[in-house]
């Protein structure tokens, strides 16, 4: 008998993968967590039924949410990651030669533990000498720190459950205060095909607070529609400009991809109020 996992990405669309083994299923204090082994994408982490990461395509998302800002900020010494308990973004951050410290704040310790057991290429970052892993509410953590970070990366689920406040104006204001005078904020802002309301919420909220706000795209096979968006807010530096050459041995990101990611299709421009 074949076993399949299906993520219902909209009420009328599902994404299915053939599963060879169920590795973990549990209800954490915050969300439903599952790890399955799929034939197409290797080990896959799901939270509340939504695909978070997989062995085969994780590098695309993790490189693009981290490397764009890391290579457009001239001195990303101190980086804060909110969410991202699988460790993938932290891996990108601490491997960057100009980063002195990467701090991961994850609300759900069970995500970190699942990654340690089933995703060694991601969780290896937890033991890096420049990494700190803190189990705490990221919203509270940001609120309690001011003028401390060069870069904040928000690696969240979509705005449901504990992640709702990560898309609020008050949270973006706290991020602004937690950043140095030339700091940057990067958030994942969902699919232009299926989540236009989330893009408007994230881009619109960041645009109200940061002098520079821009949307860019990447293509992640296991995410709804494949086309995925990220929103960056910057106090000073233009996120389109590549100022660093410290991005060797990556699988997706390079300087040309960096610049091209900001060239948006007309329908995406319209979502953020730039199209006719």
Walkthrough of the structure:
With 276 residues, this protein is an alpha/beta fold. It has two domains: 3-54, Roll (Spermidine Synthase, Chain: A, domain 2); 58-271, Rossmann fold (3-Layer(aba) Sandwich). It has helices at residues 58-70, 88-95, 109-118, 120-123, 138-143, 169-178, 196-207, 255-260, 266-271; strands at 3-10, 13-27, 32-38, 42-47, 50-54, 78-83, 101-106, 131-135, 149-155, 179-188, 212-219, 227-234. The termini are far apart.
Number of helices: 9
> Would you tell me the structural class of the helices and strands?
alpha/beta
CATH architecture of the largest domain: 3-Layer(aba) Sandwich
Give the DSSP E fraction (strand runs of 2 or more residues): 25-35%
Unreliable stretches covering 5 or more consecutive residues: none
CATH class of the largest domain, please? Answer: Alpha Beta
Percent helix, as a range, is 25-40%
Radius of gyration over all CA atoms, rounded: 18 Å
H-E order: EEEEEHEHEHHEHEHEHEEHH
**Count of separate structural domains:** 2
Overview features:
single chain; 276 residues; alpha/beta; Spermidine Synthase, Chain: A, domain 2; Rossmann fold; 2 domains; seven-stranded mixed beta sheet; five-stranded antiparallel beta sheet; 9 helices
What's the topology here?
Blueprint: E1 3-10, E2 13-27, E3 32-38, E4 42-47, E5 50-54, H1 58-70, E6 78-83, H2 88-95, E7 101-106, H3 109-118, H4 120-123, E8 131-135, H5 138-143, E9 149-155, H6 169-178, E10 179-188, H7 196-207, E11 212-219, E12 227-234, H8 255-260, H9 266-271
Parallel strand pairs: 6-7, 6-9, 7-8, 9-10
Antiparallel strand pairs: 1-2, 2-3, 3-4, 4-5, 10-12, 11-12
Helix pairs in contact: 1-2
């Amino acid at each position: 008998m074949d076993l399949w996992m299906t993520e219902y990405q909209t009420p009328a669309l599902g994404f299915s993968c053939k599963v060879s083994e169920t590795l973990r299923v549990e209800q954490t204090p915050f969300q439903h967590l599952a790890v399955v082994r799929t034939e197409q994408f290797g080990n896959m982490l799901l939270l509340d039924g939504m695909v978070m990461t997989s062995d085969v395509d994780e590098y695309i998302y993790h490189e693009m949410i981290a490397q764009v800002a890391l290579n457009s900020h001239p001195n990303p010494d101190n980086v804060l990651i909110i969410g991202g308990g699988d460790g993938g973004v932290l891996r990108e951050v601490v491997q960057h030669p100009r980063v002195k410290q990467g701090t991961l704040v994850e609300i759900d310790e069970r995500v970190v533990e699942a990654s340690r057991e089933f995703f060694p290429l991601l969780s290896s970052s937890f033991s890096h000498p420049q990494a700190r892993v803190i189990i705490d509410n990221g919203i509270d953590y940001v609120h309690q720190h001011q003028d401390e970070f060069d870069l904040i990366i928000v690696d969240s689920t979509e705005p449901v459950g504990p992640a709702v406040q990560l898309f609020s104006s008050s949270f973006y204001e706290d991020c602004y205060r937690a950043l140095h005078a030339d700091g940057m904020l990067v958030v994942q802002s969902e699919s232009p095909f299926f989540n236009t309301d989330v893009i408007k919420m994230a881009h619109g909220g960041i645009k109200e607070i940061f002098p520079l706000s821009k949307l860019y795209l990447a293509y992640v096979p296991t995410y709804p529609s494949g086309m995925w968006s990220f929103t960056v807010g910057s106090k000073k530096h233009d996120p389109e400009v590549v100022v660093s050459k410290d991005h060797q041995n990556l699988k997706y990101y390079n300087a040309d991809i960096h610049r091209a990611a900001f060239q948006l299709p007309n329908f995406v421009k319209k979502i953020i109020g730039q199209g006719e």
